[in-house]
Design goal:
Lipocalin; globular
Length: 204
């Protein structure tokens, strides 16, 4: 007599599970399902168009400048004067005019700051009245109230990195520092320090 073996419920359930796994289409390495891909969206970058709104107006400026950067010099010159900032293109750009004096020298400079709405970054274009031309623009953005902008320039016979940082921002004060690096950003030497205080009733 031939016996017909009937699978138990456990064996039948396991067999169905194996068939289901085998019949699923293969998924390539690194491929995600539609459900996981739908949640894998890039983070939304904040609109930085108004990053410099705090600075609109006239400021009293106290400036310190290192006389001979990247030479080991520790000789600083101090200046006092004003900085005036006004909006251009409804805030998508702004123009900074600086005029300061020391006992032996005078500085007139400007910075045209342009905002790129696609990259969410600012391009800072600096010029002084002595040279009359725009320097290499520094590019960057603000994070958590700190603005950092970097470019590469030629200083003497060397190619260096230049970093401009804005910190300590309050409704009536802010702090600026410029630094040079001739070792690819491993170390930085500060050569320009400015502290601004808002002139009362000048905010725009």
């Amino acid at each position: 007599m031939i016996r017909i073996l009937r699978p138990s419920r456990f064996r039948l359930t396991a067999l169905i599970a194996v068939i289901a796994i085998i019949t699923q289409p293969p998924v390539a390495i690194g491929q995600t399902t539609k459900q996981s891909a739908a949640t894998d969206t890039p983070p939304v970058r904040p609109d930085g168009q108004h990053d410099f709104d705090f600075e609109m107006g006239t400021w009293k400026t106290h400036l310190k400048r290192l006389l001979h950067p990247l030479t080991g010099s520790t000789t600083w010159v101090e200046y006092d004067g004003t900085t005036t900032v006004r909006k251009v293109w409804n805030g998508r750009a702004n123009l900074v005019e600086l005029e300061v004096d020391s006992p032996k020298s005078h500085i007139e400079a400007l910075s045209l700051r342009l905002y790129n709405s696609e990259s969410h970054q600012w391009r800072l274009n600096f010029a002084n009245s002595a040279g009359g031309t725009m320097a290499t623009p520094s590019i960057g953005e603000f994070h958590n109230g700190r603005g950092e902008f970097i470019d590469q320039e030629t200083f003497g016979a060397r190619t260096i990195l230049v970093r401009f940082v804005i910190t300590k921002v309050t409704p009536t004060s802010c702090h600026f520092e410029q630094s040079y690096s001739d070792d690819g950003g491993k170390t930085w030497e500060v050569n320009w320090i400015a502290d601004d205080t808002l002139v009362p009733d000048s905010a725009q």
